[in-house]
Amino acid sequence: MNMNEFKGVIEGLLFASGDEGVTAKQLSKILDIGLDTVEHILEELRFEYEREDRGLMIIQSNNIFHLATKPEHSSYFKRLIDSPRTSKMSQAALETLAIIAYRQPITRAEIDEIRGVRSERPVQTLITRNLIEETGRKDTVGRPVLFQTSKEFLTFFGLATLDDLPPLPENIDPDKEEREADLFFERFQDEV
C-alpha cells in the first residue's frame, strides 16, 4: 500500500472507531506499519482537515485520536437532531427498547449483558426519540443511570399502561422466537 492508501484506511478506522477513538499504537498494529509513519499520516490528515473547508477534524485526547465534527457547524447538527425523524429504527434500538420495556428500570450495563453487545448508541437513539428516559440512579457501585420507558413510548405503541404489554412467552423455542422476532421487527420497521 502507498501512503495515500494508508491515509484512506486510517481515516476510515478513525470513523469506524466512533466515540471510543483509536490510538496511534493500535493503528500501527492494525496496519502493520511503524508508529512514526502512523503519526506522520495522522498529522497530514489533521493538517488537511484544518486547511480545507471541511466539516470534520481530528482531535487527540489522552493519546486517543477521534474524528469529530467542527464546532463552528454545531447549529446545523442541532437542526438535524431536532428535526422530525422519518428514518427507521435499527434492530438494535428495537431490541434495546423491548429489554427496557420489560425489565425497567434497568442500567445500560444490564442491557449490554442481556444483548451481549454494547448498547450505547441504541440507548442514545431511544432517548433522542423520547421513547425512554433516565429515571434515577441504581444504588450500587458507580451509581449507574437507570432507564425506563417514557409516556411517549406508551402513546407511540398505543398502550394505556405498561400492563398492556403482551406477556413474554414462558417456553421459548429459539428458532421460532427468532422467526417471530423477525416478523415483529418487520412490522414495526414500517411504523417507526
Describe this entry's structure for a reader:
The chain is elongated, with a radius of gyration of 21 Å. The chain folds into two domains: 3-73, Arc Repressor Mutant, subunit A, CATH 1.10.10; 91-191, Winged helix-like DNA-binding domain superfamily/Winged helix DNA-binding domain (Arc Repressor Mutant, subunit A). The mean pLDDT is 85. A hairpin with a 2-residue loop joins strand 2 and strand 3. It has 192 residues and is α+β, with helices and mostly antiparallel strands. It has a three-stranded antiparallel beta sheet with strand order 1-3-2. A three-stranded antiparallel beta sheet has the order 4-6-5. The chain has nine helices and six strands.
- What's the oligomerization state? single chain
Name the overall outline.
Answer: elongated
- Strands of the largest sheet, in order across it? 1-3-2
The percent range for strand residues is 5-15%
How many distinct folded domains?
Answer: 2
Which labels suit this protein?
alpha+beta; 6 strands; three-stranded antiparallel β-sheet; Arc Repressor Mutant, subunit A
In short:
The protein is of the alpha+beta class and 192 residues long. The protein contains 9 helices and 6 strands, in the order αβααββααβααββαα.
Would you spell out the secondary-structure blueprint of this structure?
Layout: H1 3-17, E1 22-23, H2 24-31, H3 35-51, E2 56-61, E3 64-69, H4 74-82, H5 91-103, E4 106-107, H6 108-115, H7 120-128, E5 132-137, E6 145-149, H8 151-156, H9 174-191
Helix pairs in contact: 1-3, 2-3, 5-7
